[in-house]
Amino acid sequence: MGEKKLGFATRAIHDGQEPEQVTGAVNVPIFLTSTYQQEEIGKHKGHEYARLTNPTRDALEESLCSLEGGTSAHVFASGMAAITAMLTMMKTGDHVVCSDNVYGGTQRVFDKVLANYGLTFTYVDTSVAENVAAAIRPETKLVHVETPTNPMMSITDIRAVADICHAKGVELSVDNTFLSPYFQQPIALGADIVMHSTTKFLNGHSDGLGGVLVCTKPEQAERFRFVQKCTGGILSPFESYLLLRGVKTLAVRMKQHDANGRAVAEFLAGHKAVKKVFYPGLADHPQHELATRQQSGFGSMLSLELGSLERANAFAKRLRLGYLAESLGGVETLICHPATMTHAAIGAEGRARLGITDGLMRISVGIEDVEDIIADLDQALAGR
Ligand code: P1T
Questions:
Q1: pLDDT beyond 80 at 61
Q2: Which of 11, 121, 185, 297 has the fewest CB atoms within 10 Å around its CB?
Q3: What ranges do the domains of the chain cover?
Q4: What CATH number has the domain spanning 250-382?
Q5: What does the pLDDT average to over 354-383?
Q6: pLDDT of 132-175, one tens digit each?
Q7: What top-level class would CATH report for the domain 8-248?
Q8: pLDDT 10s digits, 102-124
Q9: Of 181, 214, 192, the residue nearest 296 (C-alpha)
Q10: β 301-305/360-364 pair status
Q11: Sequence-separated (6 or more) residues with CB below 8 Å from residue 240
Q12: What is the DSSP letter of 335?
């Protein structure tokens, strides 16, 4: 095709996904094989063993790399496996600065697993870029930012933090799970690594776990390929296929998620039973202006404060269309109680510091007809 870079939706359907050479199959097949025949000792067709490479996984990695604008992508069995793989870049004594509000599992693996290997972690509110500058020490190797954060929807200025990191010789990784590359391009804003739980919007259908690291430098690619080979926490061919299939419709899904997210946020903001709505698309969000500038959409993640555990549970029990469930980013509306689900691991004190109350609910607005979603929320709130 021509010189001009193809559009996002086109790349989501085509990049890495040429018709298969032997049969012309338009869809990338699932290569269910653990090994590959070699013609003679030391001579093979580019594949030796499936922990190292698999054609379905290779196609997916090329696709995700293209969508994030990186130089390579490396997929893992879950978002947590990807984060853990990223941290294998560290050595005992190294220090990591992390957003204080991240997915609870991220803080759990840092503090309860990786800290045992002599890594140290400092958590700061990265929505104030100066906090990052103040937390960086001579032994800091990585700043890890989640934006928007899970579940408080706080936004970090990626470019400002990238400039701070690079002035001090530190790498910046951005967890882009909540917006997907359709609405946010961290590498274009200066990030060195983008990570995702692909379980969410990239997959989009709540039918497979996965995680990805997208790189910008050859030495990162070499490192992560080596980690895939050495530790083996790779994504299976079947889940690679599911993810490739999901990514093909990312653009159309995200447009609808965004439209529905905005409508639901407006509805909730005007509802008397809702004390507060956390959604960067609302004008009263503290980083609304930054979100408007840095993102090309607001997405469909939002949180709402209902005032108490009893009110939150009454709301949850009345839901008919939305599912009370962990996770997010599927076509169906998913509603979660962060205090007992995603952020149970950080303890009551950790939650209190971040404002994750027992009355807080998080909604991943799906792409059902928005009137039906709003009617369900309205009837569930009517009991309040
Ligand atoms: O669940 P897994 O694929 O391992 O991904 C972990 C993860 C990483 N980063 C972010 C921003 C996440 O939201 C998650 C997983 N989150 C949920 C399961 C949840 O309900 O928030």
A1: yes
A2: 121
A3: 8-248, 250-382
A4: 3.90.1150.10
A5: 96
A6: 999 999 999 999 999 999 999 999 999 999 999 999 999 999 99
A7: alpha beta
A8: 999 999 999 999 999 999 999 99
A9: 181
A10: antiparallel
A11: 30, 54, 56, 57, 59, 60, 75, 210
A12: E
Tokens of 270: 């005007």
Q: Which of 197, 212, 354, 363 to mutate to test the pocket of ligand 1 (most atoms within 8 A of CB)?
A: 197
CA distance 269 to 222: 47
3-state secondary structure of 129: helix
Say how far apart CA 363 and CA 303 lie, in whole Å. 6
Place of tokens 């961290």: 186
Q: Pocket around ligand 1: residues whose beta carbon is below 6 Å from it?
A: 78-80, 103, 105-106, 146, 150, 175, 177, 197, 199, 209, 211, 326-328, 336, 342
Retrieve residue 307's tokens. Answer: 């005032």
Residues paired with 154 in a beta bridge? none
Fold match flag (8-248 vs 250-382): no
Q: Which residue has the tokens 């059902």?
A: 368
Q: Across the chain, what does the average pLDDT equal?
A: 97
Nearest protein Cα to ligand 1, atom 18 = 327
Residues 6+ apart with CB under 8 A from 27: 17
**142 φ/ψ angles, rounded to the nearest 5 degrees:** -145, 140
Q: From the centroid of its chain, how far is CA 225?
A: 20
